[in-house]
Amino acid sequence: MCGITGLLRPGGADESMLTGVVAGMTAALAHRGPDASGLWTRADVGLALGQRRLAILDLSEAGAQPMHSACGRYTITFNGEIYNHLEIRAELEACGGAPNWRGHSDTETLLAAVRQWGIQPALQRLIGMFAFGLWDAETRQLTLARDRFGEKPLFYGWCGTDLVFGSELKALAAHPSWAPSLDRAALTSFMRYSYVPAPATIWTGLRKLPSASFVSFSANAASGSLPAPQAYWSLRDVVVAAQSDRIQSEPDAVARLEQLLSAAVKRQCLADVPLGAFLSGGVDSSTIVALMQAQTSRPVRTFSIGFAEGGYNEAEDARKVAQHLGTDHTDLYVDAPTAMDVVPKLPLIYDEPFADSSQIPTHLVAQLARRHVTVALSGDAGDELFGGYNRHVWGERLQARLGRLPVPVRRMIGAALGAVAPEPADTILSALQPILPGRLKVRHAGDQVAKLGRLMAADGFESLYRTLCSIDQDPARTVIGGEERAGWAADELHKLTQPLDPLDRMTLADSLSYLSDDILQKVDRAAMAVALETRVPFLDKDVVEFSARVPASMKVRDGRGKWLLRQVLYRHVPAEMIDRPKTGFSIPIDAWLRGPLKSWAADLLSSSRLQRQGLFDPARVTRMFDEHLSRRHNHAYWLWNVLMAQAWHDQWAANR
């Protein structure tokens, strides 16, 4: 795990200039790689590559970067881990394509694979998470590439006459010609989703490389040119192909899923440094930890964060799971002041507006884990692959029932539900929890009632799904001069050649957008800010391709998601220890905005500041804040979007 940077000035450049600029860009990523720093330049083509290293595999100098291939043709700066690199080495040795290995790093394996098969065939063989910049001295091309699901970030674009790239936008901002302008369409999308969807960034002209793709630039590339990335794998195609190859046997499906997940966990436990796992006590993280512990006689190190607020605290549940499995568990109970100390750091950690409020506990649990380990496995992606979100469970059924009602009736019911204040709804539903069946138990019931009210106006399934995924239902009204622009994930969905089962369509959409642009980026920045590598066994290629073949009936059953995954977990942990309302690492942001964060929020949301910055409609923001403070509505997530954008603007754009 590392931080990577690079620069290409077509036509060549002075070596001292190249070294100085890329050294500054690389230094901006020191938090991602505290163990070493490396630079390499070629003045004749105007190329410089940099890396900050967090040593995980092959801690010797044989793993240092930028790294040259044995033949001298390729030079790479690489971030990530290739979990099947030992199998690739064996394949190279069997076909006579192996060099005289200098060490046992996966980066050296990748260089040999590219030399033997070329870039695209090599990428198709990889199981892992990565982003890299690769120079080919023979074709005089710089290629940027990213893993199948976007676990590792990669930003690129032009700063003046230089093509630049890096693991985080702050590396690009260190370039002396950095002078981008705000992209209001990207800001509008951010207000809808709480993140900026790929390939856009918050800055015009700078892009995120989409997942499962690569893009190449020649040594004489025209300034400002941004060729279209090429896909080397397609989740969309995998899901479409699986429609005619469904798994039929439930016992076989359970056994096969456990086998594939166990293999993925084993691969991802390969490290030359201490390793552990996050444990929230939910289905996903408990499954990963159970399979980790089943493969070793030593207690696995597990970590969890707890809060005093009962509706947000899963530390007690996590500890019960840890005790049952016999892990070496560490939890930390965090009070509001400690959690809120993270808030001022968020614009520096994320570089562009990002407002998934679980970014705070995620950073705190990463900070806790880093005191003991260098690598942590997580349970991310279980929801997207196996139907774990409420929208997966209720979406299709809800649309069918709503469709029977006339539109005026739906709107009337929606208005009535929208008028219900969140706290009374929470109180009523909390009182009913003991007598409700498990599938009807929910936490934060007031928020669910409000969401149901918004859904009443949905016109068709696509509209309903968009409503479910949106924080701001009409962001172009919120952002001054705002407009919405389709992202890469939407383009992928538009390329579908056949209709999908509604659950498959939802989970595909979530995997292409929410998983890649929110969940994985949240975890990467939160963990790498403290130099902790995170790994996601659910995103093993074999597990993902298997999940696409699982029919909806084995994902959602009896009003509950992740049925198949639960069957695997129940082999290791009693069902009664797991079956409870979903929370994960989350915080009571709604109460904090009315209490300890109120003055901070009021300052950022003041009409004078809003008018001065010119990003958001002051009247709309003021109304939403007033309604939240008076408890008439819970606008916490909407307000958190605005607050994170305002705080980001103060950090990165105030003088532009």
Model description:
- This protein has 656 residues and is of the alpha+beta class.
- It has 29 helices and 17 strands.
- The strands form three sheets. Strands 2-3-1-9-8-10 form a six-stranded antiparallel sheet.
- Residues 425-429 and 431-442 have low confidence and may be disordered.
Low-confidence stretches: 425-429, 431-442
Secondary structure category: alpha+beta
Secondary structure: helix percent: 40-55%
Rg over CA atoms: 24 Å
The N- and C-terminal alpha carbons lie at a distance of 33 Å
Beta strand %: 5-15%
Strand order of the largest sheet: 2-3-1-9-8-10
Largest sheet: 6 strands, antiparallel
Summed over residues and divided by their number, the pLDDT gives a mean of 90
How many separate helices?
29
Described by the principal axes of the CA atoms, the overall outline is globular
How many strand segments?
17
How is the secondary structure organized here?
Layout: E1 2-8, H1 15-27, E2 36-42, E3 47-53, E4 67-68, E5 74-82, H2 85-94, H3 106-117, H4 119-125, E6 128-136, E7 141-146, E8 155-159, E9 162-166, H5 169-173, H6 184-193, E10 206-208, E11 213-218, E12 230-231, H7 235-242, H8 250-268, E13 275-278, H9 283-294, E14 301-307, H10 315-325, E15 328-334, H11 336-340, H12 346-350, H13 359-370, E16 375-377, H14 382-386, H15 390-402, H16 407-418, H17 422-432, H18 445-455, H19 461-469, H20 475-478, H21 488-494, H22 502-528, E17 533-535, H23 541-549, H24 563-570, H25 589-594, H26 598-604, H27 607-613, H28 618-629, H29 636-653
Parallel strand pairs: 13-14, 13-16, 14-15, 16-17
Antiparallel strand pairs: 1-3, 1-9, 2-3, 4-5, 5-6, 6-7, 7-11, 8-9, 8-10, 11-12
Helix pairs in contact: 2-3, 3-4, 8-23, 8-24, 9-10, 9-24, 13-22, 15-19, 15-22, 16-18, 17-18, 21-22, 27-28, 28-29
